[in-house]
Design goal:
Elements (H helix, E strand, L loop, with lengths): L2 H13 L3 E9 L4 H11 L3 E9 L6 E9 L3 H16 L5 E6 L5 E6 L4 H11 L6 E7 L5 H5 L5 E3 L7 H14 L4 E4 L8 H5 L5 E5 L11 H8 L3 E8 L9 E8 L6 H24 L3 E4 L2 E4 L1
Parallel strand pairs: 5-6, 5-8, 6-7, 8-9
Antiparallel strand pairs: 1-3, 1-4, 2-3, 9-10, 10-11, 12-13
Helix pairs in contact: 4-9
């Protein structure tokens, strides 16, 4: 980590040493917001940002994200979590509490195409992607130089369908060793097995070079060109065992026309892919995403 990045991280941690986030989902009913607010008030916490959503006030599901400042949060965090657990039963809450000071540890998987990796690294170097990029894993060597120049560990693990289990065992060992919180597939062109996915539920973010559900699978730009599309796009989603059908986090599009050949479509598409993936990763790092079935609530 160079000195500029280190300074950015240190400044971020100083600013957020007493900042916490609380995510809650539960069946909707009266009293949820009041109970949470009173709990935070009892610990002298000041709510900085609050976003909430109900699928239906009568029998629906309720979601809330609260960001707050709390004096001496580091000392209070364990006690607050314990006390909050005691009140969640009344509302059947699923919840998570995070201390913003603790940066999430990220592993990036990549193959030969580097544009999404480079975008993530640029955002990280500029201080706009607050994370600890712990390592990069690739089934090719193309990314080694750019990654190691930033003093990020790079692991080349050749992969194909015939040795997939052996490869994933090595990858899972590394993820455990580095205590990884989030896996980003930055155009990693290998299908993950159910074993790998189940070990990392809602912790794997993929970028798909298509505006899903259109053109699922291989060679989407060729098929889009042959279809004469006027819009191309990209989709970032959590990975599940249903190929390219996990909960969608973010999507975007760009207009094209008959003058654009396949190469031009790919160039335009790569730009959309970069921005869509970065937004999805940032929202995850900022604890802005709650998964609801096969959908996401993004605050």
């Amino acid at each position: 980590m160079n000195s500029y990045i280190k300074d950015q991280v240190e400044q971020f941690q100083v600013r957020n040493k007493n900042r916490g986030r609380l995510l809650v989902s539960c069946p909707d009913q009266p009293g949820i917001v009041s109970t949470i607010s009173q709990f935070l008030f009892s610990h002298q916490a000041n709510i900085i940002e609050s976003s909430q959503y109900s699928t239906n006030p009568e029998g629906g599901s309720f979601f809330i994200r609260i960001e707050f400042e709390c004096p001496n949060l580091d000392e209070k965090a364990s006690k607050m979590e314990q006390e909050f657990t005691e009140i969640t039963g009344e509302f059947t809450m699923e919840w998570s509490f995070t201390h913003v000071y603790n940066l999430k540890k990220v592993a990036i998987f990549v193959s030969k195409e580097l544009h999404c990796l480079l975008e993530l690294l640029w955002e990280w170097q500029s201080g706009d992607l607050m994370a600890d990029i712990a390592l990069v894993i690739s089934n090719h060597e193309e990314a080694r130089e750019v990654v190691e120049n930033l003093n990020i560990p790079f692991y080349h693990i050749p992969a194909n369908k015939d040795i997939r289990q052996e490869v994933e065992e090595k990858q899972l060992k590394l993820l455990k060793e580095y205590d990884i919180d989030l896996i980003v597939l930055a155009r990693y062109m290998q299908i993950l097995t159910p074993t790998f996915v189940s070990a990392n539920p809602n912790k794997i973010i993929n970028i798909h070079h298509s505006f899903l559900p259109a053109f699922i699978g291989a060679r989407p730009y060729e098929r889009a060109y042959n279809r004469g599309v006027k819009l191309i796009g990209a989709t970032s989603h959590y990975v599940t065992n249903d190929l390219d059908e996990g909960p969608i986090i973010e999507q975007d599009i760009s207009r094209v026309d008959h003058r654009d050949n396949v190469d031009k479509l790919k160039k335009i598409g790569r730009g959309v892919e970069r921005s869509v993936l970065v937004r999805a990763v940032k929202w995850h790092l900022e604890d802005r995403i709650l998964v609801h079935g096969n959908k996401t609530i993004v605050f």
